[in-house]
Amino acid sequence: TSTGGSIRQELTSLFGASISSTFPDAGVQPSVAQTNDPKFGDYQCNNAMALFAKCKGKEGAPKNPRAVAEAIVAGLPASDLVESTTLAGPGFINVRLSRAWLGRHVGDMLVSGIGSWAPRGQARKRVVVDFSSPNVAKEMHVGHLRSTILGDCLCRTLEYCGADVLRLNHIGDWGTQFGMLIQYIADKRPGGLSAAEDEDVADLQVLYRAAKARFDADEGFKAAAREAVTQLQGGRPEYLEVWRRICAASRAEFQRIYDRLGVELQERGESFYNPRLQATVDALVEQGVAVESDGARCVFFEGRDVPLIVQKRDGGFGYASTDMAALHQRLTEERADWIVYLTDAGQAGHFEMIFAAGRRAGYFPKDREVRIDHVGFGLVMGEDGKKFKSRSGDTVRLVELLDEAKARCRTTIKERRPDISEEELEEATSAMGYGAVKYADLKNNRLTNYRFSYNEMLSMQGDTAVYLLYAHARIAAILRKSGKDVAELAKSTKITLGNDLEVALALHVSRFSEAVEEMLTDLYPNRLTSYLYDLSGVFNQYYTECQVIGTEEEDSRLLLCEATAVVMRQCFHLLGITPLYRI
Ligand code: ARG
């Protein structure tokens, strides 16, 4: 049986072996896909047509694609996974899996754990994921929430697949906003900037708004604020002190959100790269990658009007300078094999330029293949389809948003279980409330804008976390009702797939690995959510028609229920959702 990886992957190797022995010079990659209609078997190999086109006209070549398909089938190595193959159409090869093998495959997973189904393609790779990354003293808004949720899901998936993941929070802690804040505080406190008078730092959003209003209205203040940034970046001690206190206050606020969501992040803000900026830029200039333009230092790209500005006219550094230094550090010191950035889709152009400049400057190593992705996402809109804001018109504070989702779940759960203990209620509302917010975000194609609606995300029907958490709890209830220790049972009992519904369920359960692989191909978490939602549908069909408890097949069917629950929980885990066993 299998040692990690998906069924599709195993079939791909089998067909690959056949193709490379039957058509050694064709240079064709084997391609195997799931079939959606059981009429055509469980998987399909589509290589015959392309292979035929390649060898047409040559000595002894097959007469038509069907003959190519026949040759591929004849060359398939023996395996206990394939029960039979049939040909369809011009040369499609349909594969029917052995039912005995499939039952064993699921049973083995129950014994060795879901880790045995993790795709191995990313194992031991060093992956840097740059996500969340709010800006100090500015508000952490729903866009950052989206980056946090999507990024955490990708990290969890990569970790499951055995990658060595560095979760980096590239906090905006060094920008021009600090000049404004520090100058504002300094004006208010002519006696000095001591920590004892830091009440203003306690509510950074209020402080930021007040300072920004002054900045926009008062030219003298604007100039003073610019000077303050220069002094801060030049290392003026009392300014650095206030800066540290502002960052600490901000950090505590961000951490409250991360704790609630159960997201782990390592802070490595923009300031970390400050000591490297000048050298980074000088090197770019020396290599001729960056050139002087209007007193600034810029990298130009063909077909783009705006360059990447790596050093401003006044000698200051900005967002792009930091990202160049960060890219270099991640490729060299961190030895990343893969770097992923999560920000709104509006920054796609910025990252394209950063990656291209990095290539031109020779940042990418020659001794290993590096993958680099900007994972963009759309905006979060209000229920009315307009900009997302609170009833009073302000930006929504994330803590309040999460509280609201929780509060709404409380009523629903209490209605269904009036006798629930306060402790259990708290657990259930957190799981459901936060789960609902995360799931609603992840289930949408990340590139589209999505409408944030409590009513929709908390619905018990349809594609929501609430529905799925109930579905899981229902399976847990079946297992409890059996009174059996199902984990023990798995060691002694075979899963027998006696009818089509059982086969369909076992097959869908097994396709979990493929859902994970697909998600990692192009980094769309909605592939995993739709897999999970389909799984609960397939399970429902099975359960409506196959009685479990009190039948002759009880043990085997209980194991299928258990496998479904295990896979659902692993999906929840990858999505960052806490499963519930009883609601
Ligand atoms: N702080 C930025 C923002 O709020 C996101 C940073 C993303 N990461 C990066 N390396 N540029 O838009």
From TrEMBL:
Question: Which residues are in the DALR anticodon binding domain?
Answer: 468-583
Pfam families xrefs = Arg_tRNA_synt_N (PF03485), DALR_1 (PF05746), tRNA-synt_1d (PF00750)
An annotated GO cellular component:
cytoplasm
Q: Which UniProt keywords apply?
A: Aminoacyl-tRNA synthetase, ATP-binding, Ligase, Nucleotide-binding, Protein biosynthesis
Q: What is its EC number?
A: 6.1.1.19
Q: Which organism is it from?
A: Auxenochlorella protothecoides (Green microalga)
Q: What is the protein's name according to its record?
A: arginine--tRNA ligase
Print the organism lineage: Eukaryota, Viridiplantae, Chlorophyta, core chlorophytes, Trebouxiophyceae
Gene3D superfamilies, alphabetized:
Arginyl tRNA synthetase N-terminal domain, HUPs, Isoleucyl-tRNA Synthetase, Domain 1
